[in-house]
Amino acid sequence: MSLNDPQWGNRGNDDGGGKRPNQGPPDLEQLWRDLNRRLSGIFDRQRGGGGDRGGDRGGDRPPVQFNPKFLGGGIGLLLALVVVVWLASGFYIVDASQVGLVLQFGRYKESTDSGLRWRLPYPIQSHELVNVSGVRTLEIGYRGSEKNKVLKEALMLTDDENIINIQFAVQYILKDPVDYVFTNRHADDAVMQVAETAIREVVGKNKMDFVLYEGRDTVAANASKLMQEILDRYKTGILISKVTMQNAQPPEQVQAAFDDAVKASQDRERQKNEGQAYANDVIPKARGTAARLTEEAEGYKKRVIATAEGDASRFRQINTEYAKAPEVTRSRMYIETMQQVYSNTSKVMVDAKGQGNLLYLPLDKLIQAAGAVVGAPATGSAEVPAAARSTPAISNEVPPQVVEKNEARSRETLRQRDRESR
């Protein structure tokens, strides 16, 4: 467009930016097109070809005068608009779960909380938003599901030189976003390597059965503690929240043999439990019987000792009395002995001086009958047994030899008593 264009002169009458009276604010797009046309005309005039082109396009058009004030006002408005847009680019929004990190010339300057924030526009300052409340999950030994195994990560060696397949998940959050972003280049990869290293160290210090069965929680807790220590040493700004062991089993190649070994171990434990139950039933009974026999033997011992001591004491007392009156003591002992002998034997009374008739008295029956009468309840009239009322007598001829022998025995007994009394 040349300076002789009629439109240039018409627009040159506008008030400093294409704004006509009694109209709204200028259209920025239209203002930009006008500015381009004006700048193009200025450059054409400086090259000296503005008049020829103006004559070619329309020699009958009247020449227009260039207004420098209009050009300066448009450029100022444009620059102001650019400055406003540039300053507005410094606004940013931080969510409640995020922390804003402000960088000045690429270096960390400050952290900002949630809300609408402003910083100096680029390239002076920039910002990064870091999610600090979200829980991140890292899978080791598998991806997505337990069936998608990663054997390079899952196979581990135990302390007893057995290989096991372990799959576990690590959950972590950020406790220091500055260290997480600026101290380590790839913090998530560092967590992956640290987790695998820690779990291999813990598994390598324990037996296979401990890791597979009763020690799962212990292994996970020890691995979590070791991971946190390593991450703190590297200043990753990461906090391990939970380590979960998803699966732990022997390799598939030896799974069948391992199942047989497990079944045999379970049978062994079952038999041990049965044996222990039987022992718990038998041992207390045997101990009770042994204690009873021990008490009985102790009682028998005390009884025998007491009896022996009583007999010895009685013998000493008799010996003392015998030393005082030997004849009396001897007669008394003889009488008591004969009383005991006759009370336990059947008696036969023989009349040695009679005509040979034998009289038999059943003294034991008479004594029993007398005892029955004494023990019977008292009534109005007590009946005397027939055995007590009548004494049966049996007479029979006794041979002379028996009578002579009895007489000789009686005389011999009397002589012995006379000798002892002397």
Automatic annotation (TrEMBL):
One of its GO terms (cellular component) is membrane. The keyword Membrane applies. The chain crosses the membrane at residues 70-94. Keywords: Membrane, Transmembrane, Transmembrane helix. Residues 1-29, 42-65, 262-281, 383-422 are annotated as: Disordered. It comes from the Bacteria. Residues 89-262 form the Band domain. It is a single-pass membrane protein. PANTHER family: MODULATOR OF FTSH PROTEASE HFLK, STOMATIN-LIKE PROTEIN 2, MITOCHONDRIAL. This is Protein HflK.
